[in-house]
Amino acid sequence: MDIVEVKNISKSYGSILAVSKLSFSVKEGEIFGLLGPNGAGKTTTISILSTLIKPDEGDAFILSHSVVKEQGKVKKLIGVVPQDIALYPTLTVYENLSFFTDLYGVKNKKSAIEKVLDIVQLKERAKSRVDTLSTGMKRRLNIAVGLLPEPKVLILDEPTVGVDAQTRANILESIKELNKDSGITVIYTSHYMDEVEYLCNRIAIIDFGKLKALGTLQELKAIVSEKDVIELSLEEEVNNSTKEKILKIEGVKSVEVAQKSIKIVVNGTNVVLPELIKVISVTTKIRSISIKEPDLETVFLALTGRALRE
Ligand SMILES: Nc1ncnc2c1ncn2[C@@H]1O[C@H](COP(=O)(O)OP(=O)(O)OP(=O)(O)O)[C@@H](O)[C@H]1O
User: Fold this and answer.
1) Which ligand 1 atom lies nearest to the CA of residue 47?
2) Where does the record place the ABC transporter domain (predicted)?
3) For residue 17, how far is its CA from the centre of ligand 1 (angstroms)?
4) What is the ipTM metric for this complex?
5) How much is the pLDDT for 256?
6) What is the C-alpha separation between 90 and 255, in angstroms, rounded?
7) How confident is the model at residue 154 (pLDDT cuts 50, 70, 90)?
8) What is the pLDDT of residues 15-35, one digit of tens each?
9) Which of 11, 15, 4, 20 is nearest to 207 (CA)?
10) If one looks up domain 227-293 in CATH, what number appears?
11) Residue 244: φ, ψ to 5°
């Protein structure tokens, strides 16, 4: 069953079209990834889903309730974990949760707080002031706040931004466990491919507010199954005219230049490589060449012509 249906939503901020005719649906119980670079429109999309802002056109439905017309009903069905940590630093963990249980009108306050503390493994820190917690703990507490009203859909906006690798792994694990144990539907936004690869049952790739592709990891990889990524490390950065020449080589699908390295999505490495070396050697020396199997980044590169990074 589709628990979330997004139908043709658009949203502009002045002249910036943040979301453009976006449609997708999320199945009950799945972890659904919204993947896109900074500014792709992820936060705008989930702000619409969580009734914080209204779309200029289109509508979205949570368990068939319109986010435009039935805000009250929608709010009871969703939990939102914002990108920024939204906690009171001078209050303790418990006091923060207590504040939000009152705000959300959560019944059985004590057991609700204990339950979420258990899920995010912060029971031992219940009496600690928030400003004494590590960033990872704050992020987990942020998730706990989102879980307090026992939502049917938990929406997480880049919950691992600015945390170290271990904390990140920990947060991802908590989300996976939560989904497995409670069957809660999760919408997870990120610009990290490895996170959505690890977590999500299905992934929507968005760029400049538009849906570029949607499917399981296997389905998305199938889009580029015939392709390879050639990565070159160079002595010097190449200029735009060299980039244009590379794009004209037969079999080259997209080129991404980042300082002294180039990533090129190609059809038929054997045919492209000699010509590629010829074109680049005119400008600079090649330090190394590697050829990668397609992954989610290849999909993104092939669809948008840009690498998926901050
Ligand atoms: N309140 C606003 N006023 C003006 N422009 C905005 C506002 N909010 C977002 N935008 C613009 O809309 C576009 C989409 O932004 P959005 O925050 O939805 O993207 P995002 O994918 O969530 O990016 P990030 O990963 O950086 O959070 C961007 O160009 C952004 O600058």
Assistant:
1) 18
2) 4-233
3) 9
4) 0.94
5) 87
6) 49
7) very high
8) 999 999 999 999 999 999 999
9) 20
10) 3.30.70.2470
11) -60, -40
